[in-house]
């Protein structure tokens, strides 16, 4: 028999070596083709080592090591059918291959240590090869079950070849485990078995187009194969435990081990038929071993496009309709939490939620906040145990044909709920449907939050515009009041002076125009646009100074040149009046305030200077031109200097400020001179 065994292994080595030469001659450089070549060479090596062992009778451990590498290489080939890679490196570092090789390495190391620790007892090595060959059979079963007809036609010779060798070795090592030794009649036949399988591998290689085949394993296949693998591993563990009990237990060991194995089988059966365990296992397998049911990139882009292109009366309507369309339902509502006990229906379509639902929504709100779970009403009716601590009036929900309740979270804060209703044959949601609904709900929650914030911002801007308009109007009224104060102050002294009477009528006329302007702004709820007229700036400065000189210190006009330019005289009068008043208020009565006007061909420069309290550089940079920021308390509005800068900039001028605390301030207004 030794001669037969040597010849069989040698023949297998030669056959697979010839197969490898054919693969090299084909010059196929795809990943699958290159890996088949590697698998073939490992098979050549395994057969060659086995032949040499028969000839020279060295330890079987070297043959088993070569066989283990051969099994691993063919297993990686099977796994490569479920990944898309371009290089061998990518193949070896793909998730499933890394997972397989990691477990394979751990098993090899554990069995090697156990074997050497127990004085080269081969039982653990036999058990290792039982497990490795069982694993190959499971992988082949997954591969073939998941392939379509065309792919099955291409791979069935490969499946038969590898399965035949795996089954033969499984029987060989299983028998060796039970009798604590290898049946060498089987052992010497292994070389002939591998030789007979080589032509089938050659057929598969020729059938695979360009050395590549794509097979995506279905969820059901992996589920049932995983159940098979788990059950097998569990029974192996129970058998090992029974063996230990039998070894330790003496006379009673056999009885105790049998009872233990029976109890273990009962426990396994109970676990396998437990619905919750099966559901959790399905979700775990689907999440970790498969592409998603939904292409989230496409779903995300479709949602964004829908939000950008869909027109609706309100953002609540748009969000509700999007959620309804995702599940093909014809009714829905969005309910917003006002308080923990009060909810507001922001929008409803095809669904009427009366006051009876408020208490139900309170219960749902509490449940959704604690569990973060979508409530499937029909699932709740059929299996209420899946929704712990939730108690609903089922008849009330079924009467409205409500199918789903999807919570809305913005960040971690609970916003409200989508309540969706429709036909009675709504399909139950699986975990992927729920994940998609949660993702869409979260995005729509952010969408609603953004629009609500925009609405509040728009409302705030309306109030801000109204407040700003009011501030400017009050500022205008102050100027009118200052003009009228000037009349009453000089009335007793100059009432019999005809020139004074003429000035009074002119001032009253100006005040009337200003008041008409204020009333027009109030009616239209917006500031009236200024009108430009040709104004003598020097004369305007004279009028402002005359009005301001009713208080101390008196304003001195140091230099003034005639300057005619088009601008809004009333606004410019108000600006100069405000700046000069500020200078007077910042200066002691025995101080001085000066105004000068210098004109050349290109620009007019108005300088207002004083020797008052002055300002710091920080105040000028951060507060001076900031609207509604005043140092006068309730006496000022904080918009005079801001209005001055806005007006000067609007006519392409500029305003410069030089100031030093305790020494005074100088405002310089530079205006462009335009030809009339």
UniProtKB/TrEMBL annotation:
Q: Does the keyword Transmembrane helix apply?
A: yes
Entries under InterPro entries matching the protein: HATPase_C_sf (IPR036890), HATPase_dom (IPR003594), His_kinase_dom (IPR005467), Sig_transdc_His_kin-like_C (IPR004358), XrtA/PrsK (IPR014265)
Histidine kinase domain ranges (all copies): 472-675
> Keyword annotations for this protein?
Hydrolase, Kinase, Membrane, Phosphoprotein, Transferase, Transmembrane, Transmembrane helix
Origin species, per record, is: Thalassomonas haliotis
PANTHER family xref list: HYBRID SIGNAL TRANSDUCTION HISTIDINE KINASE C, TWO-COMPONENT HISTIDINE KINASE
Write down the superkingdom of origin: Bacteria
Question: What EC number(s) are associated with this protein in UniProt?
Answer: 2.7.13.3
Per the record's keyword annotation, is Transferase included, yes or no?
A: yes
State the protein's name.
histidine kinase
The protein's annotated catalytic reaction(s) are: ATP + protein L-histidine = ADP + protein N-phospho-L-histidine
Gene Ontology MF, one: hydrolase activity
Q: Which Pfam families match?
A: HATPase_c
Q: Where are the transmembrane segments?
A: 6-25, 32-54, 100-118, 124-141, 153-174, 186-203, 223-246, 252-273
């Amino acid at each position: 028999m030794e001669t037969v065994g040597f010849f069989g292994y040698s023949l297998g080595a030669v056959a697979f070596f010839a197969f490898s030469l054919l693969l090299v001659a084909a010059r196929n450089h795809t990943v699958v083709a290159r890996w088949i070549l590697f698998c073939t060479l490992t098979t050549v090596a395994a057969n060659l080592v086995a032949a040499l062992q028969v000839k020279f009778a060295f330890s079987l451990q070297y043959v088993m090591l070569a066989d283990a590498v051969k099994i691993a290489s063919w297993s990686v080939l099977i796994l490569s059918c479920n990944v898309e890679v371009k290089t061998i490196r990518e193949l070896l570092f793909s998730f499933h291959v890394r997972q397989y090789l990691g477990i394979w390495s751990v098993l090899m190391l554990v069995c090697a240590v156990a074997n050497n620790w127990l004085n080269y007892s081969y039982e653990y090595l036999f058990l290792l090869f039982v497990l490795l060959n069982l694993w190959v059979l499971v992988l082949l079963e997954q591969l073939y079950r998941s392939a379509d007809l065309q792919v099955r036609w291409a791979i069935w010779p490969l499946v038969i070849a590898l399965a035949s060798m795996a089954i033969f070795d499984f029987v060989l090592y299983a028998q060796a485990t039970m009798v604590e030794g290898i049946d060498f009649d089987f052992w010497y036949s292994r070389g002939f078995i591998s030789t007979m399988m080589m032509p089938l591998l050659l057929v598969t290689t020729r059938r695979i187009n360009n050395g590549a085949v794509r097979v995506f394993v279905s969820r059901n296949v992996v589920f049932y194969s995983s159940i098979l693998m788990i059950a097998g591993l569990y029974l192996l563990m129970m058998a090992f435990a029974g063996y230990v009990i039998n070894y330790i237990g003496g006379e009673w060991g056999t009885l105790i081990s049998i009872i233990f194995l029976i109890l273990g089988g009962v426990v396994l059966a109970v676990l396998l038929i437990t619905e919750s365990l099966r559901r959790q296992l399905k979700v775990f397998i689907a999440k970790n071993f498969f592409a998603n049911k939904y292409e989230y990139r496409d779903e995300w882009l479709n949602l964004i496009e829908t939000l950008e292109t869909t027109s609706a009366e309100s953002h609540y309507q748009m969000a509700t309709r999007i959620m309804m369309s995702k599940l093909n339902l014809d009714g829905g509502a969005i309910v917003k939490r006002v308080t923990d006990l009060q909810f507001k229906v922001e929008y409803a379509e095809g669904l009427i939620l009366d006051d009876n639902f408020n208490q139900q929504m309170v219960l749902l709100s509490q449940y959704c906040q604690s569990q973060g779970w979508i409530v499937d009403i029909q699932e709740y009716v059929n299996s209420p145990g899946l929704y712990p601590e939730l108690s609903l009036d089922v008849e009330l929900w079924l009467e409205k044909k409500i199918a789903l309740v999807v919570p809305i979270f913005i960040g971690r804060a609970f916003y409200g709920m989508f309540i969706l209703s429709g036909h009675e044959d709504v399909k139950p949601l699986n975990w992927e449907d729920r994940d998609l609904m949660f993702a869409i709900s979260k995005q729509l929650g952010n969408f609603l939050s953004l629009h609500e914030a925009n609405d509040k911002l728009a409302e705030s801007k309306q109030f801000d515009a109204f407040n700003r308009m009011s501030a400017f109007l009050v500022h205008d009224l102050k100027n009118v009041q200052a003009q009228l104060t000037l009349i009453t102050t000089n009335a007793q002294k100059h009432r019999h002076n005809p020139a004074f009477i003429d000035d009074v009528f002119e001032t009253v006329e100006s005040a009337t125009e200003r008041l008409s302007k204020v009333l027009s702004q109030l009616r239209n709820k917006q500031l009236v646009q200024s009108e430009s007229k040709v104004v003598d700036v020097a004369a305007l400065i004279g009028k402002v100074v005359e009005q301001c000189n009713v208080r101390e210190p008196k304003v001195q006009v140091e230099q003034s040149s005639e300057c005619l330019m088009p601008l809004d005289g009333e606004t410019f009068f108000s600006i100069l009046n405000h700046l000069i008043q500020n200078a007077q208020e910042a200066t002691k009565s025995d101080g001085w305030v000066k105004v000068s006007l210098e004109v050349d061909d290109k620009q007019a420069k108005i300088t207002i200077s004083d020797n008052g309290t002055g300002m710091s550089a920080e105040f000028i940079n951060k507060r001076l031109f900031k609207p509604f920021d005043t140092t006068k308390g309730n006496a000022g509005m904080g918009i005079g200097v801001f209005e001055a800068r806005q007006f000067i900039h609007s006519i392409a001028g500029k305003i410069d400020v030089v100031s030093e605390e305790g020494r005074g301030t100088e405002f310089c207004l530079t205006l462009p001179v335009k030809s009339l």
